[in-house]
Specification:
This protein has helices at about 1-10, 10-20, 25-40, 45-50, 60-70, 80-105, 120-130, 135-150, 155-165, 170-180, 185-195. By secondary structure, the protein is an all-alpha fold.
Length: about 200
């Protein structure tokens, strides 16, 4: 239940649940957290791509950044389940870095590199603002990540599944999902409400 997860779990636990279909043991969670922490850094060439498209919509930058990451992924052409899990973990670790780097670059600031001693939510706030995250703000961000992980079978998930079912690589499937969620009838609708 998403309410139970939001109240009692971390985003890292939810990532494990989505990948493996069950909540992790303490050891499995530590192993996943270690993998996420070690895979947060973006190749400098991807940072340069973000700089080149800095004036674009954030979803366009995220889509372009994920696509660019495929050129640096050692498993890009391996469509096995094991490789897909490795790629998924790397992309989950790197996506917040793309978003934070773009946010800072478009403000004329240098990106802040990720830290390995924070969870995904805390690290995201650190990379955005270049200061230690407030624990309460980090928990709120973590809950937001958990809630956003629960989408069911929406348009972007469908687009990603269609792409993956054609035996395309995981990066292509994620790019298709990002492209779909940008549409004004999907994720773009929330953006219009905020404006």
């Amino acid at each position: 239940n998403i309410h139970d997860l939001a109240e009692n779990s971390t985003f890292e636990e939810v990532i494990y649940l989505l990948i493996y279909g069950k909540l992790p043991t303490k050891r499995a969670l530590l192993e996943l957290e270690d993998l996420l922490q070690k895979n947060r850094v973006l190749p400098q060439d991807v940072i340069q791509v973000i700089r080149a498209v800095k004036d674009s919509h954030p979803m366009d930058v995220l889509r372009t950044g994920v696509s660019a990451l495929s050129a640096f992924d050692p498993d890009v052409n391996d469509n096995s389940v094991e490789a897909a899990i490795r790629k998924g973990i790397r992309l989950t670790a790197q996506a917040p870095t793309i978003v934070a780097a773009h946010h800072r670059i478009r403000q004329g600031l240098d990106p802040v590199g990720p830290r390995q001693d924070l969870n995904l939510a805390g690290n995201f706030l650190y990379m955005l603002f270049n200061k230690d995250p407030d624990p309460e703000e980090a928990r709120v961000m973590d809950v937001d990540f958990v809630i956003h992980a629960e989408h069911g079978s929406n348009a972007s998930a469908f687009a990603a599944r269609v792409t993956a079912s054609c035996m395309a690589d995981l990066h292509s499937a994620v790019v298709a999902g990002i492209a779909t969620i940008k549409g004004p009838s999907h994720g773009g609708a929330a953006e219009d409400v905020m404006l």
